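Batch manifest, entry 17 of 40.
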Amino acid sequence: MKGRSLKGLLREARRRGLLPYKSLGQHFLIHQGVAERIVQGAEVEEEDVVLEVGPGIGGLTFLLLERAKKVIAVEIDERLASFLEEMAAGDPRLRILREDALGVDLSALAEREGRKLKVVSNLPFNVSTPLFFHFLSHREVLTSLTLMFQREVAERIISPPGRKTYGILSVFAGLYTRARVLFHVPPEAFWPPPKVEGAVVRLEVLPHPAVPIEDPRLLQRVLQACFQRRRKTLLNALSSAGLGTKQELREILQELGLDPQRRGETLSVEELASLSNILSKKENF
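Output type: structure tokens
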């Protein structure tokens, strides 16, 4: 299997009529150089157990197998799972899960492997955001994530406060990871070419949240209030979301040194976390 080229995999997939399914958001990576840059950027080492979601025709899979101890590939498309299995020729280091990745218990996988997982994936664009949150919900068993997103989604993940791109994705990424864009990928690197550019993001999972969170559900309510009511002041957004009376909220914001007239999307990750934590200490919550 060593030396298995993406060009060869692509030729074989086309010979067999394995066309990408639009309904599954499939855009197969067909550029060998891009695949190699992703694996290099992921810093895969020989003792790593790598989780790959949406392996497609194996453009990343077989490069990962050249470096990693094991690759767990999650593929919901039975056609592609069978193709990968045949191309792997029985290599025991490749485990294929024929499942929806959103339903995979990553904690159980890591426990079975006896180590944390490293995620490296060209994510299906139509489910990349839900998958991102699924990964973060299992962050305790992950060391890093190197993921291909649409460029727009990548920009939201790394966005600083105050920009239109800053939102819930940005806050969660800032709380639980250290994220950076490695490089952008043109549509021509995929089959079929999407209408947008891709971007590869490397996220190092932090050993502890940047700010401890007292009540994750309350934090979610605070974030929804701030980012779903962008035109409202912070005071009005929180009040409209039922997070307290205006008088109560004024006192809380004053305690935190926050101007009630600010817009919620201008608050930093630390400010949002602190706001959520102080709200969690109030009896009404």
